[in-house]
Amino acid sequence: MVYGVSFRTRSPLVYEPLPANITRDYITTQSGNLEILAALPSPSSSSSSSSTDKRPLLFIHGGFGSATVYLEFLEYFSQLGYPSYALSLRNHGASYSVSFLRMFFTSKYQLSLDIVAGLQYVSRAHSCDVVLIGHSNGGALCQYVISNNMHHLNNNNHKTLSSSSSSSPPVAVDISKLVLLCAGPCYGLLGVYINWAKLDPCFFFRVMWHLGNPRSPLSSTRLVHNAFYCPEFPDERVKDLEERHMPLYESMRWPSTMMLRFADPARILNNLSSSSPSIYDQDLQRPRQVLVVAGSHDKLMSLSLMSKLAYVFRRAMTQRSSSSPSIHQQPQPQNQQVSSSDAPSSSSLAEGVQHGVE
Q: What distances in angstroms separate CA 75 from CA 16, 141, 168, 244, 252, one per listed residue?
């Protein structure tokens, strides 16, 4: 341990018991077991006619996160009739541990394979398309997965995805909607880290002092609080979240190779399934399949970055609409988008996401 950072291999984490309606399972991959948490609707909520067409939700955490950051979300959406899941990527949460050096050089492609394994798990359980929801750099990975069509296993470019499960053959997964919660923008993460450097003037000096350790910008409770939470959020809760959810180290190769454009919004829209009902955009005569949720107090994924992200998807959607005729004849009522004020931990953000998954 060097001034709040560690270079030793992570020890398995021990968690408090989960809420009664949330279960923990493991997805077997060739590299190790991935933690996945699930909250399924109660018989009363799932028996209603309005719940029969509700697609399962898969939540993906961001850097230094885990599936347990979504416990409130899993409970909230399962009560609304949505089968809800949250995945821990390798070396996060209760998923398998990776040595410091191996994790340091883990690529975005390798982490994306974990997401594909989670998508396959959910798709097998429900035999329908999935709503994919990603926060921060996890949302960036979600865009990378869809842009490269990694969820469609018949793509010749991704034959190696057969490693997703040792007990079941790989399956092609349809993703009907993508929800981006203060997510890393597909046009590149450079602006995010410029925001971080402005927020923490010692950012780069500290990283060099800590010999490039990925935990360096978050090496104290004060730094975690400053980067991820609003000033009113109690320090005691930040420290508790550090101990319960944050791994000792993270991949440095993952974000460093996403500084510039890493995903194409037009390809993302083309690779989303249009088989399930969507909120209809009356202006473009197209269903809405991507929801960008911004936080008014988010210091890293700022409103300006998220506004630009929404714009690039809107522009791609406009170009797609102008190049092909609409196949939808009956517009559905248009819902009002709701944005959040903080990282994914409040009911207001969950209500905002609800507009994207319905």
A: 17, 24, 28, 19, 32
